Amino acid sequence: MPDDMARPLIRERAGGSRHLEASMMTPSTLLIGILGTGDFSRSLARRLVASGYQVMVGSRTPARFTALFPEEAEVTSQMEAANQADLLFVAVYPEHHSTLVHLKPALAGKTLVDVSNGLQIKQEGPSNAQQLADLFPESYVVKGFNTISAWTLQAGPRDGSRQVFLCSDDQNAKSSVMQLCRRMGFIPVDMGLLSSSLEIENLPLYLFPSWRTPIICALALFVFFYLYNSVRDVLHPYVTAKKNNLYKLPIEIVNITFPCVALVMLSLVYLPGLIAAFLQLWWGTKYNRFPNWLDHWLIQRKQFGLCSFLCAVLHAIYSLCLPMRKSARFQLINKAYEQVNAGHPDSWVGEEVWRMELYLSVGIMALGLLSLLAVTSLPSVANTVNWREFTFVQSTLGYCALSMATLHTLIFGWNRAFLSAQYYFYMPPTFLLVLILPLAVLLGRVALFLPCVGHRLGQIRRGWEKSRHIRFILPDDDCRNGLENVSNV
Q1: How far apart (Å, rounded) are the C-alpha atoms in residues 40 and 292?
Q2: Around Cβ 272, how many Cβ atoms within 10 Å?
Q3: What is the pLDDT of residues 420-462, one digit of tens each?
Q4: pLDDT band at 476, cuts 50/70/90?
Q5: For residue 41, what pLDDT is reported?
Q6: How many angstroms separate the CA atoms of 481 and 462, rounded?
Q7: What is the pLDDT of residues 223-256, one digit of tens each?
Q8: β strands within 169-213, DSSP E
Q9: Which CATH class is domain 211-462?
Q10: CA atoms within 13 A on the CB side of 106
Q11: What does the alpha-carbon distance between residue 196 and residue 133 come to, in Å, rounded to a whole number?
């Protein structure tokens, strides 16, 4: 019985005491090993030395790479680095992990940080880190630093991403690496167990996953409106009057197309919020899950808005360049000669002057509001405002920007929608097609702003359900904030 009581309840793995001691060491006494001599290894060694750590680099040919590393870092053999270091970074390609098997006795009980990445996105495991853990079952494998580039390590966290995603099956090993991250100036993010390593390894391989749909949508709209405008302004004059207007394709047609795309994309920013609001009104509850397509659409509203802002800026730049064209100068000279020959030197048309003044003024205001929305969407700016301020800018001012952009298009069209001569090939003017979606969005927003609709939607978003017999009264303060509360999903 005394022998049973003296037996430890939890058996430590081999080298467990040394592993605990390593996690409690100070940076000046902790010896960091790096297995590998590539670009990432050299950058990592410089950052570790600058952070006050002792660094030992293990190489198969130490004499060849000594001059490439800082003088404070010792370049030695892989075996010596494995024996001496308390924590090691495995900075070799995953297909070469098997070449380190002879170091297994020396690495037993030590923490190994796998920094490798795959060549393509994997949907199923095992990950590189899990394969490394299978090769070294007596070591503590931590996945991390694979999302940090060599340039970020050299320049420091100020010029790159500061987050380092970490995961491991051993909490002590992960804690020691997290402490090392903080010492290097990075922010560790705990991703849980080593089973999350596959997700971490896939992170650097994604190519704008949240931008794919907005970019495809913007390109599709651009192609559609470009071809539509080309048929109206280039093909129609050639068919009817044998007039060659091909010179309009590089600048003028593009300049007409960009605002069309910008306004439709801006409408697509606020349309999913309206759809979600009407679905909640239809269901009578906020606890039903939105369809997957609507979920993805809501998540990608920022990208849709930035694409809209880009098209609006390009439209402004192209518009400023219009007077610089040779064709514009020739047209101006010809128009002047025609007026002089006709005996009407004064070509002032008050209606056209007012239309153009209003058109430019409203357009500048719309671009200014879009710029404010784009700046506020930046994480560095969004983190400095509270949720109410962010909502006011993105929702209230966002709808103001949409209203201004719609008014800008209406003034551009003026009375041309009612002139039969503007329907080339029986095709309506482009601005009529563009106005369909933003006007529908603005009308839907006005419908939600009605007291009877907005009050019910506010109740639903505070937990009221139509299917349950619960008396629910919305506070008076929220009733006065319908413009902000209704539009947020």
Answers
A1: 40
A2: 21
A3: 889 999 999 999 999 999 999 999 999 999 999 999 999 998 8
A4: low
A5: 94
A6: 14
A7: 999 999 999 999 999 999 999 999 999 999 999 9
A8: 187-190
A9: mainly alpha
A10: 19
A11: 13
* Token pair of 358 as six digits: 């209003």
- What contacts 452, CB < 8 A, 6 or more positions away? none
Peptide bond into 272 cis (omega under 30): no
d(C-alpha 411, C-alpha 360), whole Å: 9
Q: How far apart are CA 34 and CA 62, in angstroms?
A: 12
Edge-to-edge strand ranges of the sheet holding 74-77: 74-77, 54-59, 31-35, 87-90, 111-114, 140-143, 163-168, 187-190
Q: Which tops the pLDDT comparison, 473 or 384?
A: 384
Q: Specify the CATH architecture of the domain 31-205.
A: 3-Layer(aba) Sandwich (3.40)
CA angle 392, 302, 148 (to 5 degrees): 120
CA 232 remoteness from chain centre: 37
Q: What local confidence, expressed as pLDDT, does residue 17 receive?
A: 47
Tokens of residue 19, six digits: 């592993």
How far apart are the C-alpha atoms of 372 and 392, rounded to whole Å? Answer: 12
Judged on CB neighbours under 10 Å (0-12, 13-18, 19+), 331 is exposed
* CA 281 vs CA 248, 251, 270, 450, 487: distances in Å: 48, 46, 17, 13, 13
Pairwise CA distance, residues 32 & 56, whole Å = 6
Both tokens of residue 69? 């590393």
Rg (alpha carbons) of the chain, rounded to whole number: 32
Kindly list the domain boundaries of the chain, sorted by start residue: 31-205, 211-462
Question: What pLDDT score was predicted for residue 26?
Answer: 58
**Alpha carbon distances (Å) from 115 to 35, 158, 293:** 11, 21, 35
Q: Which amino acid is residue 16, in one-letter code?
A: G
